[in-house]
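Hi Q.,

Before the meeting this afternoon, I wanted you to have the flavin mononucleotide prediction in hand. No need to reply - just skim if you have a minute. The sequence and ligand are here:
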Amino acid sequence: MAVKKTDLAVSIGDWKLKNPIMTASGTFGYGEEFADYLDVDSLGAIVVKGISLLPRTGNPPPRVVETSCGMLNAIGLENVGLERFISEKIPIFEKYKTGVVANILGDSIDDYCRLAERLSDTSITAIEVNISCPNVKKGGVAFGTDPKMAYDITRAVRKKCSKPLIIKLTPNVTDITAIALAAEEGGADAVSLINTLLGMAIDIKSRRPKLANVVGGLSGPAIKPIALRMVWQVCNKVTIPVIGIGGISRVEDVLEFLLAGATAVQIGTANLVDPNVAGELVVKLTAYLQENKIENIGQLIGSLEV
Ligand SMILES: Cc1cc2nc3c(=O)[nH]c(=O)nc-3n(C[C@H](O)[C@H](O)[C@H](O)COP(=O)(O)O)c2cc1C
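Predicted structure with the ligand bound:
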């Protein structure tokens, strides 16, 4: 008997993704670095390295440290800046037959608005707003740690952004659902979570921090249970799609996030271990649906029984 075709397509607002597997910002370069290892077009979408108005050199080394079941990074959002992004990187993206999401970062609401406005005039598919950055004007408190600030930035960017708008949440808060609700109220089409958890590591011989920046962001399998818990909590509160991120490397991880209610997932640190992991996850997810006779991925999303 012929196997029925499985439908892996998911939607974020009006944007239809052929499958829910995306890459996470900062772990997949601009896609071209991975093109020898996997078919970028097989992915639901790629999220490229965070971009600011002006180029940033990032933090001094050492900027990356391995930890138990994960890693710490303090790259400091190094990037080529908006103008080079538009002139050098967007022409590369135009060759892809999958969605390309620009991840933006800034020090003020005005920075974010200018980025969103310029990028709305390009062929970029969607915009993801990294609100883990410190609001320099408000004394360095991250936009994503205060519901009022999260609402204000989402609302302001929404007005300038004609593309699907994703707000990326930080887990370094007491109640992530309050921030997610603020982003929804501000007009976001989706929220993505989680960004890295703040951590540190010490070299006991030199008695110095292992990172020059002292603290850094923890990612990888170590954070998966926290990410999954936060995604589940947020899915129970908001009505917009939720994109799950955090320690995903196996098809079982993808399934856990989908069951918890995530519409799509992003693969981060796992790309640094196996550059083909995201491509393999598409294949394995398709096989899982076929083997279990699930015709439509929507049947899995949010089907957790508590
Ligand atoms: C080296 C590195 C660089 C990152 N750069 C960014 C970035 O520029 N913007 C952003 O929103 N998140 C950035 N992240 C966070 C990831 O996109 C992701 O949210 C986080 O690592 C958790 O997912 P994972 O455990 O699958 O890596 C970065 C993570 C790593 C490890």
